[in-house]
Design goal:
Layout: E1 19-25, H1 29-46, E2 49-55, H2 61-70, E3 75-83, H3 89-108, E4 112-119, H4 122-128, H5 138-157
Helix pairs in contact: 1-4, 1-5, 2-3
């Protein structure tokens, strides 16, 4: 991804009073740790209360995100890494994670920041993980999107 077309940053979102949980898979730890660091930076800067929950992999993200939102969190940030291999496994896991997280957001009416990277190779993940050599910070972007959506939903429902 080139980052072309990305929204222009309008400053830090005020996350005061929001509880946001980062839910991250355990696969591809260098990339995942970068995503977690980026999401954590965004949440700290916003003032939101936040915590981290680890899950086995991207396939497990939807069920855990749903449980966390149903237990009272205002938003979740789902982070995972799925790298294409030589079998159809990539398509199945990518589709299940994406469709599942979409359903979670719709069914709970709460934001799910989508930070699941679907990659052809590891380098694409390093480029997007918010590491010193990265060109993008998808963990930060996913947390920022969750915060902005939570604020918008609060305003719409007020």
């Amino acid at each position: 991804m080139s980052g072309k077309g990305a929204p222009v940053a309008t400053g830090t979102v005020d996350g005061t009073g929001l509880r946001v949980v980062i839910v991250a898979g355990e696969w591809h730890d260098v990339i995942t740790d970068g995503l977690i660091a980026g999401a954590t930076r965004a949440l700290r800067a916003s003032g939101a209360q936040h915590e981290l929950v680890r899950v086995a992999g991207s396939f497990e993200l939807p069920v855990v995100c749903k449980a966390i939102l149903e237990a009272g969190a205002d938003a979740v940030v789902a982070l995972g890494v799925i790298i294409r291999g030589g079998t159809p496994h990539f398509e199945y896991v990518s589709s299940a994670a994406t469709d599942g997280l979409t359903r979670v957001a719709i069914e709970t009416g709460k934001p799910v920041g989508f930070g699941v990277l679907t990659l052809d190779d590891e380098q694409q993940g390093i480029d997007r993980a918010g590491l010193p050599e990265s060109t993008e910070d998808k963990g930060f972007e996913a947390a920022d999107a969750a915060l902005r959506t939570a604020r918008t939903l609060r305003a719409v429902r007020a």
